[in-house]
Write a structure and sequence with these properties.
The complex is a heterodimer of chains A (about 110) and B (about 120).
Chain A: E1 4-7, E2 10-13, E3 19-25, E4 31-37, E5 43-51, E6 54-57, E7 65-67, E8 73-78, E9 87-94, E10 104-105, E11 109-113
Parallel strand pairs in A: 2-11
Antiparallel strand pairs in A: 1-3, 3-8, 4-5, 4-9, 5-6, 7-8, 9-10, 9-11
Chain B: E1 3-6, E2 10-14, E3 19-21, E4 23-26, E5 32-38, E6 44-50, E7 56-58, E8 64-68, E9 73-78, E10 87-94, E11 104-106, E12 110-115
Parallel strand pairs in B: 2-12
Antiparallel strand pairs in B: 1-4, 3-9, 5-6, 5-10, 7-8, 8-9, 10-11, 10-12
Classes of the chains: A mainly beta (about 110), B mainly beta (about 120).
Chain lengths: ~110, ~120
């Protein structure tokens, strides 16, 4: 049971390039989330999904797109990377309504946009 | 709307002394509250959570937190710090309300330094 895994661990992009971050969970969780972590700001929710085929915007969705084609995977895409998207990205999953449920986090992806 | 404020960005203690990390929250609803810990270059791990049961919540590694509704606080404590406790700690409130899916709202984080 690997829990939540993220690919890649680290990436450097040039401004304007695109990339996709992959999150996979093997716990059969319905809910999945993408956060970004910036110094002094905690984690902020980018997008989330309440089930296969559904996605919704979080607190800071601009510049990102997501897809949840399979229950176990949640993809985060950057169509045209900007330096402001330099951050650490965390994926998380939970079995149900996160108000009372624990969210399980992946190890993170460090992204540097030059 | 929910929000959470961690009152200290950095706390330094000596090994073997008590730890207190302070957190105040704001919520229009009965909140669920969490403390997560993040060790350097690692993901976040749940320490403990409050979900309207006992107000004193015990977590892993000897940590505990007390929910005080009158003070809107959820401070994290540990009687005796260990070197391995050095990490960043996040106080988190879970959103409630119509149409909400329980999105987590994070505090800014408190860095705990433990000196030998």
């Amino acid at each position: 049971n690997a829990g939540v895994t993220q690919t890649p661990k680290f990436r450097v992009l040039k401004t304007g390039q695109s990339m996709t971050l992959l999150c996979a969970q093997d716990m059969n969780h319905e809910y999945m989330y993408w956060y970004r972590q910036d110094p002094g700001m905690g984690l902020r929710l980018i997008h989330y999904s309440v089930g296969e085929g559904t996605t919704a915007k979080g607190e800071v969705p601009d510049g990102y797109n997501v897809s949840r084609l399979k229950k176990q995977n949640f993809l985060l895409g950057l169509e045209s990377a900007a330096p402001s998207q330099t951050s650490v990205y965390f994926c998380a999953s939970s079995p149900g309504l996160a108000a009372k449920e624990t969210q399980y986090f992946g190890p993170g992806t460090r992204l540097l946009v030059l | 709307a929910q929000s959470v404020t961690q009152l200290d960005s950095h706390v330094s203690v000596s090994e073997g002394t008590p730890v207190l990390l302070r957190c105040n929250y704001s919520s229009s609803y009965s909140p669920s509250l969490f403390w997560y810990v993040q060790h350097p270059n690692k993901g976040l791990q749940l320490l403990l959570k409050y979900t309207s049961a006992a107000t004193l919540v015990k977590g892993i590694n000897g940590f505990e937190a007390e929910f005080k509704k009158s003070e809107t606080s959820f401070h994290l404590t540990k009687p005796s710090a260990h070197m391995s406790d050095a990490a960043e700690y996040f106080c988190v409130v879970s959103g409630h309300g119509s149409g909400n899916t329980g999105k987590l709202i994070f505090g800014q984080g408190t860095t705990l330094q433990v000196k030998p």
